[in-house]
Design brief:
By secondary structure, the protein is of the alpha+beta class. The chain is built from five helices and nine strands. Helix 1 packs across helix 3 and helix 2 packs across helix 3.
């Protein structure tokens, strides 16, 4: 049986660039300062309605909370981060609209600067289409800038037109044609 794949659009953000201006319509709170299973709950809701085939596969193969917990725990495999980097975006009503999980690649420093990625990012279904992905991506990128990252690699499914647009609006560039990734 052959492995299932889907197409991802690769993006990169590279220095030197000015510090990202993060829009002020959301406040950001580290996920660890909120109730313990809240991150798992929020990520499970986002994954269950995701445009990303690998997200959908993860939540279909296991109970959603178990799938998300496994996925989040795998962030320590080849990546490093501090708990403060992983953040919820919160609107003026105090509602969580989404999350951003920036990380750095272990062992990929160049001239003292790190290389990073947005491990995951998501907007809850009821807040999609309002531009919050731009805010979350800006915050995640700024977090990486603040710790000294010289390059950020990201990708998204070719079908996720909103996220492709967000990458471009925030200053990422598509660096190659879409490529196949295993689901």
């Amino acid at each position: 049986m052959s492995q299932q794949t889907y197409l991802k659009v690769p993006f990169v953000w590279e220095e030197p660039k000015p510090l990202i201006e993060v829009p002020q319509r959301l406040t950001f709170e580290p996920v660890h300062t909120m109730r313990g299973s809240l991150l798992i709950s929020i990520v499970a809701r986002v994954m269950a309605s995701s445009m990303d085939a690998s997200h959908l596969k993860k939540v279909s193969e296991h109970e959603p909370y178990e799938a998300v917990e496994k996925f989040l725990n795998s962030a320590s495999d080849g990546f490093s981060y501090t708990d403060d980097w992983w953040q919820f975006g919160i609107n003026e009503n105090g509602d969580i609209v989404g999350f951003v999980l920036p990380v750095i690649f272990s062992g990929c420093a160049k001239e003292g600067l790190e290389e990073g990625t947005i491990y995951d990012i998501g907007v809850l279904p009821e807040y999609r289409g309002l531009g919050f992905a731009n805010d979350l991506l800006s915050q995640g990128t700024r977090t990486l800038q603040d710790i000294g990252v010289w390059r950020v690699f990201c990708d998204t499914s070719v079908s996720n037109v909103r996220m492709i647009s967000a990458f471009k609006r925030v200053g990422y560039r598509q660096y190659s044609e879409p490529c196949e990734r295993p689901i």
